[in-house]
Amino acid sequence: MMKKAIPPLALWLISGLLGISAVTVEYKPVGSEPAFSVDIPEGWERFIHTEGKHGQVLFYNSRNDKNTYIEIRSIALDSETTTRELMHQLTARLSLRFYFVELQKEEPAPFRPDIHMARWKISDDNKTFLATTAVTHQGKKALMLIAIAPMANFRKQSIFFDNAILSLKFTEGKKQE
Fold this sequence. Notes:
The chain contains three helices and ten strands, in the order αβββββαββββαβ. It is α+β, with helices and mostly antiparallel strands. The chain has a seven-stranded antiparallel beta sheet, with helices on both faces. It is globular and about 40 Å long.
């Protein structure tokens, strides 16, 4: 049986009916990393860290579960790379944080052939989480997204995660002064 993806317009209508809204966040580079924009749930806080050729933004809802978050890494690459190489980097990143990492599904993002997605089951300290990851790249720049929630809460958060993935894009933001 084939599952159908929810079109972006349907996500927008559902979020409006449920009182869920998102804000577009524009990331301006500090170093040589690329600028990007992404839609994040309204009211989520952010933590920004930059180092060398990459920037990292962590979005989370401090009023609710701090185990639910979206992390985006913006990377200036030394050379052009493949989607597979970026997926290996994501796997390594998850493996550094969680002791059990299992890939469940991998596919292009619906309606966004430039984004490659994967679903994961991960565990740490007797807690089980589900994660959705996404990578996109152009030339010598890449964006990696990791969205994580506890297994019991993942379904409720997946609309936010899918919206972030479908809205993620490179922008021409100027470097911060």
